[in-house]
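Forwarding the complex inputs:
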Amino acid sequence: MGRLVMKFGGTSVANIERIHNVARHVKREVDAGHDVAVVVSAMSGKTNELVAWASAASPMHDAREYDAVVASGEQITSGLLAIALQSLGVQARSWQGWQIPIQTSDAHASARILGIDGAELIKRFKERKEVAVVAGFQGIHEATGRITTLGRGGSDTSAVAIAAAIHADRCDIYTDVDGVYTTDPRVVPKAKRLDKVAFEEMLELASQGAKVLQVRSVELGMVHNVRVFVRSSFEKPEDIDPHGTPPGTLICSEEEIVESQVVTGIAFSKDEAQISVRHIEDKPGVAAAIFGPLADASINVDMIVQNISPDGKTTDLTFTVPASDYNRARDTIEKARDKIGYKTMDSATDVAKVSVIGIGMRSHAGVAAQAFKALSERNINIRAITTSEIKFSLLIDAAYTELAVRTLHTLYGLDQA
Amino acid sequence: MGRLVMKFGGTSVANIERIHNVARHVKREVDAGHDVAVVVSAMSGKTNELVAWASAASPMHDAREYDAVVASGEQITSGLLAIALQSLGVQARSWQGWQIPIQTSDAHASARILGIDGAELIKRFKERKEVAVVAGFQGIHEATGRITTLGRGGSDTSAVAIAAAIHADRCDIYTDVDGVYTTDPRVVPKAKRLDKVAFEEMLELASQGAKVLQVRSVELGMVHNVRVFVRSSFEKPEDIDPHGTPPGTLICSEEEIVESQVVTGIAFSKDEAQISVRHIEDKPGVAAAIFGPLADASINVDMIVQNISPDGKTTDLTFTVPASDYNRARDTIEKARDKIGYKTMDSATDVAKVSVIGIGMRSHAGVAAQAFKALSERNINIRAITTSEIKFSLLIDAAYTELAVRTLHTLYGLDQA
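Prediction (whole assembly, two chains):
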């Protein structure tokens, strides 16, 4: 017997039939003796409809009113699931963000969770075995008493935060994939599902393009040490043994991973653009002169590579931005030309970033060197390299992305037997 | 300069274009210098959709969860209207029932308003000229912290209650009719719109079938002396002079009606069924034996006629029920036959009730007698009569309804010139 959070996204609650299916999933866990809090998204399509209405009412709208409108989607699902659970004989009640309350910042439409008091929910587990059905994605800013939302994908974050607040043993995220893979199976059919992955690795995998979980929810899981289990929402509730080990990927602390691989996964992204600024003076303040204006323009810079200047006087600096920001980034740098004092700028849009991730790298030397060798044997040119403790990323020509990913996947022994 | 509540129903806010139209109505009053609170319903069709989902989730559902689901409809409209108002440069914010709060009983799905603190709304009128956009139909039960709804048509009640709480000079109800008429204009084309009608008269008109306003909102207006103005939502905001006298009907206290008519209006209802119980013993407890079981079966009894028994021993008792409850009512009486001790029961479904209403009747004798004479001249048989201080009702054969209404309308001088 334990305490579980179960999170279901918009597709899983898209209509009444699917909501009943979710109710049966929940009943299975309740029958197995667990305390359960369920976190739900809005019915698939609902949020888009509400967002469209708010934009039609006025393109430049008050984010506080936007939140009041959009949060209604999760409110509806929470009530409907509570009804569906009760119809199966399961004690349940819905909770809106302001009722628990889930306290957030006042950054409307992208609020951060500040605190959740789980005491009332825990009391109800103990006294009545009552399932808490929590509206995801939303909270309240207590000083103003207004409804807030956490931004897209915020229900994952709600789920992990609720799990931390009620000291849950696990937070199950039901998604349309059955776990986290070593890389994208559409590119590498031999990709394997990972049984376990460390929070740090998942952060790199997620932010590098594995779109299974919101990055913020993984960060939150890491901070509060909430074990997050990614599993499929397509399995029939009746086919699952609640006492068995269901297929899926557990995202947990490093300590829980006994036999860690050197490399856990390969992430990649083709939506990259590279900008190189050449012959800039090698003196303090130059980096600030480049990245300050980009930050002011809300352009997210990813890789940054600057070499030790050979003559101590001038150097080159390369960085990547999302392909969609490419033109704006170039304009921004050109406008700041006098301040930066560069000679030439060159750039490319047909580039891709491939990242190799694994906490085992920390204690293994030469992991990156193997990659350089294998890629050069395939005639894949490496444009830039960045490294961190548990990851290295390579910038290559986009045309070679799939070849590079497959090569590295085999190289590090990730292929399915 | 004054303080106004403006209430718009579902048809008036059915889509974004109409919400913008409502915003222009509100701006007109704000520009004229008024403090304004707007009360809105859910977008037309929304509430039905939400109710259908709750029923599909489970036909026998928890009314608390039903309320959480259904209240979201008004939440959406309130946010959208606040956005639309801001886009016109009008300061505005949305208020959910729990934010004000609008305190209600815990009779979920048909809660009663217990109290509203209007201080914060009034403060914001004074400090910022901020329009309060209030989600109608909903409130909160404070002890449990749960969302409640007031039942169908509850937004009228919300509007009048908000008007009482903020001491509004008037509560404008925008509807798809331009006021209250002497009778149904579809039956009597010469029916006139009333400029003013007393609360007591409106209660009789509304409960007798004039479906302009919720009866509860009229009761509330009478108790708190809130002047309620029924007006058309179809007029273009630009065509209305905010300083002029718009067409509509003011529902107000008797004192405000200087020249009261003897008869104000004629109401009628064809959805009636008549049941007569004959030869019952004329002794205490018999009425209770009949109407107790009907009340237990939630059957609404309307007219009740019992004559003084000629011999002091047995008497007949006639009452009416809604036609839809006819069969259930007969069954209920038959089951209680032994307890009631009647000899025969006869009944009819093709009957109609015609009511003549006017506070002037109090001081005028012979008003009903004129009606009896006029109807007998048309060969209309009167099956039963009940009277109150400001009304009398006649039960007649349904086939004569229109003839009777037209005859009485002319008789009491209500026809348009």
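The CA atoms of residues 291 and 302 of chain A lie 11 Å apart.
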